[in-house]
Amino acid sequence: xxxxxxxxxxxxxxxxxxxxxxxxxxxxxxxxxxxxxxxxxxxxxxxxxxxxxxxxxxxxxxxxxxxxxxxxxxxxxxxxxxxxxxxxxxxxxxxxxxxxxxxxxxxxxxxxxxxxxxxxxxxxxx
Length: 126
Fold this sequence. Notes:
The structure is a single chain. The protein is an alpha+beta fold. The protein has 2 domains: 30 residues, no CATH class; 94 residues, Ferric Hydroxamate Uptake Protein, Chain A, domain 1 (Beta Complex). The protein contains 2 helices and 9 strands; from the N terminus they run H-E-E-H-E-E-E-E-E-E-E.
């Protein structure tokens, strides 16, 4: 039995090595959600409430959860400029994700329910 455990461990080590070599695993930097090129430090979560993402953001800010700034544009809605003091720099911007998917609408036009996942990801535009 001892030989089987060592054999299984060796096989696992080789498998991880091969997958790392082919880029399936990246053991170097912390990553955000699966398939994301965003480091975990560049993701800000906001607890969802019944209403819009913007309403959830105001509630989270009022509770001391984070800070944000932005501007209301009459034809486009609210545009988030900074979150926790970080604004556009080096080609990076804040992107809204709902339940792991890029939102097709902005914070003032996106409705969420309790239990939804709201994330702002700081990343380069594609």
